[in-house]
Design brief:
heterodimer, A: 116 residues, mainly beta, 11 strands, 0% helix, B: 107 residues, five-stranded antiparallel sheet
Amino acid sequence: GAGVSQSPRYKVAKRGQDVALRCDPISGHVSLFWYQQALGQGPEFLTYFQNEAQLDKSGLPSDRFFAERPEGSVSTLKIQRTQQEDSAVYLCASSLRPSSGDYGYTFGSGTRLTVV
Amino acid sequence: RKEVEQDPGPFNVPEGATVAFNCTYSNSASQSFFWYRQDCRKEPKLLMSVYSSGNEDGRFTAQLNRASQYISLLIRDSKLSDSATYLCVVKDNDMRFGAGTRLTVKP
């Protein structure tokens, strides 16, 4: 596609519910990143994929968070047993090349998750 | 200490003003630096890269001081459309963002 596509755009979940957030990166982009952005804060790194390999998951806040990219294109971020503190915008970004290098990433519009 | 720290703002300036944002980073081995712009309820978008020699893009000038681990963004002749949050970004293997500085340009 022309840009990074994320779905759903908005998600309201009851506390304790599991959610799955989808990211369609730009076609052919090797690198894919997930970020979490709380209200009034900058995006916080969650995890990074190079093709289907998850090379860095150091930012995932707990073992309730899980991400996958099984075929090296679409990625899913899953949050189990959601808590109120998980309420945030979840941003996906992709880039054509591996992560290091003097270039920025293209972000999707994000999924706004509200846990009630 | 956060990896990337920015002036918290908010900055409220009149049209035509010059405004400067500052940012410091903690990892001296960081390789690449950027400024991103984020409009309300929108995704971050790349504004410009930041190079050691300093670089300019129209009304925007970015500076990097590696010795002081300091990055700046200068906006000249502010426009109403410059109102947004400006995010300082430091990149090693992935991008790390500051909390952002909110700018409001008023008529």
